[in-house]
Amino acid sequence: MLDQHENNQDIKVSVCVVTYNHKNYIRECLDSLINQSASFKYEIIVGDDASTDETSDIVSEYASRYPGLIIPVLHQKNLGAARNYFSVHDLARGKYICHMDGDDLALPGKLQRSSEILDREHDVNIVFHRMKMRSAKTKNEINDLLDTNIIGKNRFSRSDLLTIGSIACHSSKMYRRENKFIDKTNSDVLDYFTDIIQVGSGFAYLINDFLGVYHVGVGITQSGKTKKIYLNHLEYFLKTYPQYSAEIGANALTCFLVDLKNGRDTWRTGFRIWLQCLSVKSIPIFIKTLPLRKIFRTPSPD
Questions:
Q1: Contact, 299 vs 216, CB < 8 A?
Q2: How far, in Å, CA of 249 to CA of 277, rounded?
Q3: Are 98 and 14 in contact (CB under 8 A)?
Q4: Are 176 and 125 in contact (CB under 8 A)?
Q5: How far is CA 264 from the centre of its chain?
Q6: 3-class SS at 229?
Q7: How many CA atoms lie within 13 A of 245 on its CB side?
Q8: Are residues 137 and 98 in the same domain?
Q9: Which candidate, 11, 24, 15, places its Cα nearest to that of 47?
Q10: Are residues 136 and 63 in the same domain?
Q11: CA nearest to 179, candidates 89, 119, 87, 239
């Protein structure tokens, strides 16, 4: 780890950690970031959303032990995931911004490797990497499915993201500060929404190496609510980027068929969005990308 107390070098990377009731994970998360070997100065900003366990105490402890490196943002009232996210990312001073959830952890080389891609690839606005999937219950661990040799490429455009959806874990993400999404919305926002905004006219790059660990099964799963938010995002994108109506239609068609198969009420919304796209071109795009949908998902380690 570079000496973070040196003031003769500007901060290159801001690591933004969001956490809530992660007392069993936050120490390992912060240790994995503190111990990164990097050729540049970085900061770790930790936003605790008024946890009801000992998470905020642990964050305060680490901030006292590592002044100047760890910056605590301890909310007295629960803001919700979106507002907590913005409160942390808005404080980022680095040229590049890395996101981490407080229950995940970084593997050696994460910050260095991701920043090198952004240094070298000037048309890349977001960098992701592969993750190990670890069960929060059993501690079983498996690899994700995101082998770029199988996918056939490691660069993804806004068109790709609108068609496929999320391509990697949020805790694997690093992006350019100038592309920071700064809307102070109080609405629920998924990481997919910020990905679409931040990729811009450039690309998202997927590193074909495992540089982090994602804990599967932490917290309360709200798949129904999450799907409604996701579909709201698709409707927004259809209005904002009408030139991608076919791609968005293929995405909505996927949501419709999956939800219909699983008996979720949200199938109606997916079907309605697909009809709004008014593009028969969505069907061949859907068929062409169907094999990829088995790859861009979170496998279960149990």
A1: no
A2: 6
A3: yes
A4: yes
A5: 25
A6: helix
A7: 12
A8: yes
A9: 15
A10: yes
A11: 89
Helix axes 267-277, 245-261, angle to 10 degrees: 160
- What is the pTM assigned to this prediction? 0.93
Burial of 152: CB neighbours in 10 Å, binned 0-12, 13-18, 19+: exposed
Same domain, 157 and 241: no
| pLDDT single digits (tens) 97-145 | 999 999 999 999 999 999 999 999 999 999 999 999 999 889 999 999 9
Q: How many domains does the chain have?
A: 2
Tokens of 232: 């709201």
pLDDT at site 297: 85
Kindly list the distances between the CA atom of residue 147 and the CA atoms of 80, 118, 152, 206, 208, in Å, as whole numbers in the listed order. Answer: 33, 20, 9, 9, 6
What is d(CA 184, CA 206) in angstroms, rounded to the nearest whole number? 28
Same domain, 141 and 23: yes
Distance CA 102, CA 59 (A): 10
Look up the domain containing 233 and give its range.
Answer: 223-294
180 and 252 assigned to the same domain: no
Q: What is the pLDDT of residues 58-73, one digit of tens each?
A: 999 999 999 999 999 9
The whole-angstrom separation of Cα 275 and Cα 261 is: 19
pLDDT, tens digit, for every residue of 9-65?
699 999 999 999 999 999 999 999 999 999 999 999 999 999 999 999 999 999 999
